[in-house]
Amino acid sequence: MGSLKNKLTVRDLSKGYREKEVLKSVSFTVRDGEFLSILGPSGCGKTTLLRLLVGLLSPETGTIEKDGTDITFAPPDRRGMGIVFQNYALFENMNAQKNVEYALKIKKETRGIAAERAKEMLAAVGLSEYAKAMPRNLSGGQQQRVAIARTLALHPDVILFDEPMSALDVATRLSMRRELKRLQATFGTTMIYVTHDQEEAFALSDRIMIMDRGQISQLDTPENICRNPANDYVRTFVLDNLRAKIDSLSKYAPGLT
After folding, report:
1. Confidence label for 231 from pLDDT (cuts 50, 70 and 90)
2. Residue 212 maps to which CATH number?
3. 3-state secondary structure labels for all residues of 49-62
4. Interstrand relation of 35-39 and 61-66 (parallel, antiparallel or unpaired)
5. Is 110 within the bounds of a domain?
6. Which residues lie below 8 Å from residue 20, measured CB to CB, with a gap of 6+?
7. N or C: which end of the chain has fewer CB within 10 A?
């Protein structure tokens, strides 16, 4: 993990839809260079929180600071953040190289270096030989790597992941986990990772934020959560399910978990 300096500081963040409060006065910090997972079941508010952080939604109350600057209502392209979605969101009519170049070519300041940086990022995710391949000819794991390369190409200092591995098979998920940790070590990027998978969160994270019905139940290291679960919800949703998932994974991929 990086330094103990806070990269993000979130205070009293709230958001509702149609009179239903989805996030309830959430406060936390994310450290520079940290891998933080946001873990919880469907409907707990984790994806809403991610979209607030990246600027795709605006909060009703609260503030978001990045490196000490208030970015609560800043547009997404002024936040220095990137996001990788579950469905890859690749352009089907562009090859891998062109997909990575796309966002670089939109910005005048990076237009001239788009091709070279795209090559560098494809190499970083191990896809140099697939630069000319169309998305339909790539596996799910390869498409996700292209999506990550496209995000890395913009040099964000925070990358947000919205359930990025849920559509991948077990072996590919395990491979992608190692890849993410390697990329984080290489680039020093702060990563915030939304998932409903307990085993995935524990395998990847420096700290885990466990959410329940729009609130934070516990935010701590995997070790401390195992030793001292904050309440019955953490004990049942997280630890009991974690043990079951590890048992299941070990049958499919012994030695890889």
Report:
1. very high
2. 3.40.50.300
3. HHHHHHCCCCCCEE
4. unpaired
5. no
6. none
7. N
